[in-house]
Every structure is written in C-alpha cells, then in structure tokens.
C-alpha cells in the first residue's frame, strides 16, 4: 500500500534529485501507469513544468518529438534507450534541448551507456526502483562535487552502476545466509534490503508482522541481488530466484554471461531468450530455464563458444572463470549478420 504521503514525498525528492524546474518539458515516453514514468506526473506538476504525452513508443517518433517540442527531461525503460540509440534519425535531428535523460527497468551494459551519453549529449543516469518503494531506490546521477573530484573514466564507471541510495531511502546489501553486510566491496553478491519514508507500508490484506519480506526493524527484502562499492554505489546483477549454483559458488546468469558478451568490442547488441539447460553437477540452476544469447556483432565476424570463454577469462579472475565452465556462458554462440 502506497499512501498519499509516500507518493508526495517521492515527488518532492525526485524534483530535488533531478533538479526539475518550471521551464522543463517532460516527455512521457514510457507507460504512464508504470513507475518508470508515473512519478513524473506528480513531480513535473509540482514544479509547474510542461507534459508531452506519447500515445505509443516508436523510436523515430520520439526522436522527432524531442526536436519539435524542445524536450528537456525524460525517463524511459532501458530497452527503449537501446532501440533509440540505433535509429538512423539521430543523424538528422537536433537533440540539444535535452538536459537530463535517465533509464530504468534493467541494468545497461557499459558500452550501451557510453553510446547513450555520446548520442544524447546531456546528463545521463540509471535508476533502480520498484513499485513497493513508489519508484526510485537508487540512482547513478552524479553530484557536482563528485564530478570535480574524479576523472572522466571514474565518472563513466559510476554512471554505469545502479546508483547510490535515493534521497529518502536507506539501502544495504546483505549476505543471503548470514544476513550480515557483504564484506568484499564490489565482489560479493548479496540481497538488497531497503527502508525509508518512500517505502510502502505492506501488502494489501497481509499483516506486515507475518510477512517475511520485512525484518523486525522495518527493512524490506527486495529479492534483488547486487554488489556494492565502498562508496555505497550498488550494481544490480539479477533476481535472487535466478541464482545459479556453479562450482560450489553462488552466481547469476546475468553476471556470468550478459556483461561478458556485451564487453566484446565487436558485439553491437544482444538478445536474450529462455532456453532449456542440461543438468550438470557443476551447474545446477534453481530454475529449469536459463539464458541463451545470440548477438549481432558490428563487424562481420563469427564468434564461437571457445572465443566467448576466452574473452571472459581475459576479463575476470582466472579462479572464477575456471568454475564457470559448466555455466550458460559455455554454451553461448554469437553470429554475425
């Protein structure tokens, strides 16, 4: 249940975080019933900004809209960003009115973030949130002091994370077994727990005291898995239900596979589809479905499973790669168009 007080507090905090003001023009590109965009209905109205509503998403139409209406701010789904960044109309339309573009729904690979920043030419960040928290839990927007104290590479690396806690949220990443904070910053995967004034008060017709999603101190278990840096920035890797037991080590299909294949220089984009996975002693999925990905490289070249594993081994610690031989990454193929 989300009260009027929670929704109002979230709207005010979002205005402060994104520096929204009366001269802003917001493009409602994502579905307005979804909290990727719904929060802007309240935030933009609060500051007296202008709303521009898109009936349906079509990349070319959105690009033309940005130029025609002078859009300054928008928040869209990560998949929408990926689609827009490959539209040919980008070469012929002026997007210079954009001030802030953000995305949410799922993490973006660093290569996709770099491309988006280069194309839109404005401040870009990634948000992580959920309905139970009225929208935002964390955001990778950078403060002026952070930009001043860090070089461009550090800034880019930080934007690629799922961000630091939203203004009204407390966030911690705990070991699923011990319920203690993860110890290896940026290495150990843990569960994301949240608490704050924009968090919901419980599920409808369910006593919060009997709900194991909450602990005795009011912290809510999101069911998401993440790693956390020493400065508090988290990076989402997957859902807890998608955990894979591989070589005696907990890991996720997204962590093991997706970011590796996307980091190959000649890979342009990826598509993930469910596929059955043969049962192996060293790789036991908690679900009978696993990710199998085909990619479309920008260069006309064929990648084999051997090359994929070789790239993964050169990008990570050898001990972890050795344990991953039975993971979905070992069966991946990439074909050129």
What does this structure look like?
By secondary structure, this protein is of the alpha+beta class. The protein folds into three domains: 4-165, Rossmann fold (3-Layer(aba) Sandwich), CATH 3.40.50.12780; 169-239, Luciferase, domain 3, CATH 2.30.38.10; 247-331, no CATH class. The protein contains ten helices and 16 strands. The protein has helices at residues 4-18, 38-47, 59-69, 78-84, 110-120, 144-149, 152-159, 253-263, 305-315, 318-323; strands at 25-28, 50-53, 73-77, 100-104, 123-130, 135-139, 164-165, 169-174, 190-196, 220-228, 234-239, 243-246, 249-252, 267-276, 283-285, 289-297. The strands form five sheets. It has a five-stranded mixed sheet. A four-stranded antiparallel sheet has the order 8-9-10-11. The chain has a three-stranded antiparallel sheet with strand order 13-12-15. The longest helix has 15 residues, at 4-18. The protein is globular and about 55 Å long. The protein starts with a helix and ends in a 14-residue tail after the last helix.
Characteristics of this structure?
globular; 5-stranded mixed beta sheet; 337 residues; 3 domains; 28% helix; 10 helices; 4-stranded antiparallel beta sheet; disordered C terminus; Luciferase, domain 3; alpha+beta; Rossmann fold
- CATH class of the largest domain reads Alpha Beta
Strand content: 25-35%
Strand order within the widest beta sheet: 3-4-5-6-7
What is the annotated CATH architecture of the largest domain? 3-Layer(aba) Sandwich
N/C terminus separation: 48 Å
Q: Which shape, going by the Cα principal axes?
A: globular
Query: What Rg is obtained from the alpha carbons, in whole angstroms?
Result: 21 Å
Question: What's the total count of β strands?
Answer: 16
Mean pLDDT: 79
Poorly predicted ranges: 245-250, 277-300, 317-337
Count every helix, treating DSSP H or I runs of 4 or more residues as helices.
10
Biggest β-sheet: count, sense, barrel? 5 strands, mixed
Question: In which range does the helix fraction lie?
Answer: 25-40%
What would CATH call the homologous superfamily of the largest domain? ANL, N-terminal domain
CATH topology of the largest domain: Rossmann fold
Secondary-structure content class: alpha+beta
Order of helices and strands: HEHEHEHEHEEHHEEEEEEEHEEEHH
**How many domain units?**
3
């Amino acid at each position: 249940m989300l009260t009027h007080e929670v929704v109002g507090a979230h709207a005010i905090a979002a205005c402060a975080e994104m520096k929204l003001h009366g001269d802003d023009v917001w493009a409602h590109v994502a579905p307005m019933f979804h909290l990727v965009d719904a929060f802007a209905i309240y935030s933009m109205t609060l500051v007296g900004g202008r709303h521009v509503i898109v009936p349906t998403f079509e990349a070319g139409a959105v690009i033309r809209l940005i130029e025609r209406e002078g859009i300054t701010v928008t928040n869209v789904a990560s998949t929408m960003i990926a689609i827009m960044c490959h539209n040919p109309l980008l070469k012929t339309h002026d997007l210079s009115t954009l001030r802030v573009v953000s995305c949410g729904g799922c993490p973006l690979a660093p290569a996709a973030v770099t491309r988006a920043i280069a194309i839109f030419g404005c401040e870009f960040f990634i948000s992580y949130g959920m309905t139970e928290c009225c929208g935002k839990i964390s955001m990778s927007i950078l403060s002026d002091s952070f930009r001043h104290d860090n070089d461009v590479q550090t800034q880019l690396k930080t934007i690629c994370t799922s961000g630091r806690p939203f203004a009204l949220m407390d966030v911690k990443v705990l070991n699923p077994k011990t319920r203690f904070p993860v110890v290896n910053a940026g290495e150990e995967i843990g569960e994301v727990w949240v608490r704050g004034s924009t968090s919901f008060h419980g599920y409808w017709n369910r006593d919060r005291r009997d709900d194991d999603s909450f602990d005795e101190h009011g912290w809510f278990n999101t069911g998401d898995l993440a790693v956390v840096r020493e400065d508090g920035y988290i990076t989402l890797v997957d859902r807890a239900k998608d955990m894979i037991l591989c070589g005696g080590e907990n890991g996720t299909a997204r962590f093991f596979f997706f970011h590796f294949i996307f980091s190959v220089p000649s890979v342009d984009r990826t598509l993930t589809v469910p596929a059955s996975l043969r049962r192996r002693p060293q790789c036991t999925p908690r679900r009978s479905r696993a990710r199998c990905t085909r990619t479309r490289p920008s260069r006309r070249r064929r990648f084999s499973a051997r090359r994929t594993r070789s790239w993964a081994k050169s990008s990570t610690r050898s001990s972890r790669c050795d344990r991953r031989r039975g993971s979905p990454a070992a069966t991946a193929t990439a074909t050129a168009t």
